[in-house]
Amino acid sequence: MNDDRSYRVLAAPESGPLRLLDRETYEPIVTAESGHDDAVADLRAGYLVDADLDWSSAEPTVRSASVRRPTLYAFADGIDPVFEVAQEAWADARAVGDSMNSRVTRNTDNEVNGVLYVFAESETGGTFDAFRDGSRPLEPLVDRVNEREGSAPREVFVLRPADGEFVVVTIALRKGGQFADTLRETYDCPRPSEPLA
Length: 197
Description:
Number of strands: 10
Shape: globular
Oligomer: single chain
Helix content: 10-25%
Strand order of the largest sheet: 3-2-1-4-5
Distance between the termini: 29 Å
Number of helices: 4
């Protein structure tokens, strides 16, 4: 059985098989170790892709894939320092007993350059891991930004401070923009090569 629809490429464990988020069901899919279209090797975490999956075996293979929007996801654990807007958003959430909060971020000219969310980290560290493996999709956050700002490639950063108290999800509105570049440099998240972008 073939299945042709759009998926979000998820972060895969080191040397692990491709992981996709089904955008209709919000379920993560772990694909087969091999047997995919050649394009799979050049997909990056965060890409929105149109893919044709072959489900004739227990773990699907990707028969074909094309990039619809080359958004990038980046993950960094144990970050230090935590930037001020994130610290303030978390302090405000704690002050009123909430487990999450959000803010827009602005550049030095007071122009909006991103959206930031903070979430309480679970005692087992599961919030960060759930965002990374797709069991807690980032999709609703990205969709909300796209509804307001228009659809465009973005850079999404999931950051866990060194104290492990909360998780920061930051969506840089402009891929390759100054805000995204600053986050990559500050938290050692080099931008991957993108043969398909």
